[in-house]
Amino acid sequence: MSTAIRAQRKKIGIVLLGVVGGAFLLAFPFIIGQARYTEHVAITICFNVAMATSMWLIWSLGFVSFAHAGFMGIGAYTSALFLIRLGLPMWVGMWAGAFMGAAIGLVVSLPLMRTRAVYFFMASWAVGEVIKRIFAYYRNFLGGWEGLFNIKPPKLGPIDFANRTAYYYLALLLVVFVVVAVARMNRSRTGWIFWSIHESELLSSHLGIHALKYKVVAFTIACFFAALTGALYAHYHQYINPRSFDIWVSEFTLVHIIVGGLSSVAGPILGASILTLIDELLRPTEFYRVIIFGVILILTVLFLPGGLESIPRRIKARFGRLPEDQGTRKRLLGAFTDGLSRKAKGGE
Amino acid sequence: MHLLDIQNVSMHFGGLRAIKELDFTMGEGEIRGLIGPNGAGKTTFFNVVSGVYIPTHGRFFFKGLDITRLRPHGTARLGIVRTFQAITLFKNFTALRSVMVGRHLHSRYNFLGALLNTPGYRNNEQENLERSLEILEFMGLSKYKDELALNLPHGHQRALGVAIAMAAEPRLLMLDEPVTGMNPEETAEMMGLIKKIRERGISVLLIEHDMKVVMGICEKITVLNFGKKIAEGTPQEIRNDPTVHEAYLGGEDYAS
Q: Collapsing DSSP states into helix, strand and coil, what is residue A204?
């Protein structure tokens, strides 16, 4: 089979998956008979996927930001304050929140993105914690530890988004916007530049790539998406407090990405969807949830490096349905296994 | 006007003086060799010129422009591109993708065009693709274009490093030990390629320990020892220079 036909087939497959998946997502509330709890889970999945995808954008340059939940909080608080103090609906507040998140992300990333590896983890952790503390500190303006109440969902003509089904479509719109934007960036030269910095900042800088500039751009965009998600989160729960944007939220998002897989945008989508579902199923086990999450993370790292997204590749490799051509074979099997087999052969 | 003009440059790391008051000039279209025993400051010299380090003293000029304080992405923009002694590649990129990234400075890239996949962006990427394939062909890597860089054999990895640098269309290409670890055939091939690169109007500055390579392709050689220039001249002159022998063999006593 020629590569052209294979590419054609793949394209058809993707379009088919998009149409069927899209139809399923659109029809979902009616499939489940608008069951309130199930709709709540679906909306939570949307938020978590948007968070995971935007955090993955920062990962594509090789960084893990623990400040991500903090930026979600900035969007949430901004949008909530626009409503409570200024009486402006979410339609205004969500964009204000997103741009506020991006602006603060830009300022913070200028010093933050000059650090590397473990120092970046620590610095971003501190940023996340400071943001949370600021929410808690200003009791009169930001509501202190008690948080902000009465963050009403918006209305659009005859549609009141206090209705969960309506809000589901809003959350779906958000997640599609974030995922499509990140996926397109990743597929274009922008993504190549990001990944080239991930692979070797030294080499890319000697090719004329201003690494700091692209790191700041990526961080700012990711913060924009996180803050936008935060705004929708605030108007959905109608109540926020500093603990909603704790470091735990960043950590769970990171677990979603690792379990899902780090090499493509499918990773955060799969990881966040499946783990949010598992999390909800485990709700009756109360605090064992966290332990089970830890076990899932360890098992993934040990037995499924590459995450859920690598499963189709692994199945193909296991059942020997590999193409004749050596090059394609190697790409399917992945870099890791191939590196080993070459070493075993003593190099060529 | 010299292509590269280095005036009285020193590079100190604390008490260590890696380069001491070095003067160096290089003309357009030259293939210049830079040799010296281990620790002579050759790689430091590359790091200073390409902007990784900013020298402690002195200034240097590229085509008359003061580039002393430029960072790597700035010197690359002016046309100084280098390779590395330890193989440095985008390991999980295919060879073709790596070279495409190397086209960074010459792609009319803008963020929105790439996001929206505009016709302008696509045409430009088509041009980049054609140029990249041509460069891979030139470096003899065509049939490896879809291989991941880390799966290539050692010699081809070195060649890919040069291909990526070539994609940036340098005026001055600095090669840090381009034939290290290559077998004799690969070495001969690389020597031919370096000559062909110069025929394309690119000046080449190269560090190399393999004397056959240096003597074979360089018109002029500069010898460093302990951060100082101890000799400069044609291969013939360098071969017969007593100070060079002394630096490599440790003085008259050892040599005799």
A: helix
**Chain B interface residues (partner A, CB cutoff 8 A):** 50, 71-73, 76-77, 81-82, 84, 88-93, 97, 100-102, 104-105, 107, 109, 111, 114-115, 117, 121, 125, 146-148, 150-151, 153-154, 164-165, 167-168
pLDDT per position as a tens digit, A298-312: 998 888 888 888 888
User: Is B249 inside any structural domain?
Assistant: yes
- What is the nearest CA distance from B162 to chain A, expressed in angstroms? 12
In this prediction, residue A327 carries a pLDDT of 53
Convert A69-99 to b/e letters by CB count within 10 Å (16 or more is b). bbbbbbbbbbbbbbbbeeeebbeebbbbbbe
From the list A199, A206, A338, which residue is nearest B82 (CB)?
A206
- Domain contains A4: no
Q: Which of A202, A208, A347 has its CB closest to that of B104?
A: A208
What is the residue range of A42's domain?
34-247
Task: Calculate mean pLDDT across residues A28-38.
Answer: 89
- SS3 assignment for chain B: CCCEEEEEEEEEECCEEEEEEEEEEECCCCEEEEECCCCCCHHHHHHHHHCCCCCCEEEEEECCEECCCCCHHHHHHHCEEECCCCCCCCCCCEHHHHHHHHCHHHCCCCHHHHHHCCHHHHHHHHHHHHHHHHHHHHCCCHHHCCCEHHHCCHHHHHHHHHHHHHHCCCCEEEEECCCCCCCHHHHHHHHHHHHHHHHCCCEEEEECCCHHHHHHHCCEEEEEECCEEEEEECHHHHHCCHHHHHHHHCCHHHHC
Question: What is the C-alpha separation between A268 and A274, in angstroms, rounded?
Answer: 10
Q: How far is CA A318 from CA A326, B20, B199, in A?
A: 16, 60, 50
Q: How confident is the model at residue A320, as a pLDDT?
A: 61
- Enumerate residue ranges in chain B where pLDDT < 50: 253-256
Beta bridge partners of A159: A156
Number of compact structural domains in chain A: 1
Using 50, 70 and 90 to split pLDDT, how confident is the model at A20? Answer: very high
Q: What is the pLDDT of residue A322?
A: 55
Query: What interface predicted TM-score (ipTM) does this complex get?
Result: 0.91
Predicted local distance difference test score (pLDDT) of residue A67:
95
Q: Which residues pair with B207 in a beta bridge?
A: B34, B176
Q: What is the CATH number of the domain that holds B59?
A: 3.40.50.300
The pair of structure tokens assigned to A292 is 């089970």
The verdict on residue B243 lying in a domain is: yes
Domain, as residue range, for B248: 30-78+171-256
Q: Which amino acid, one-letter code, is at B240?
A: N
User: What pLDDT shows up at residue A227?
Assistant: 97
In a domain, B117, yes or no: no
A2 pLDDT above the threshold of 80? no
Q: Does A14 have pLDDT greater than 50?
A: yes
In a domain, A242, yes or no: yes
In this structure, chain A runs to a length of 348
pLDDT of A35 reads 87
Per-residue model confidence (pLDDT) at position A326 = 54
Q: Is residue B140 part of a domain?
A: no
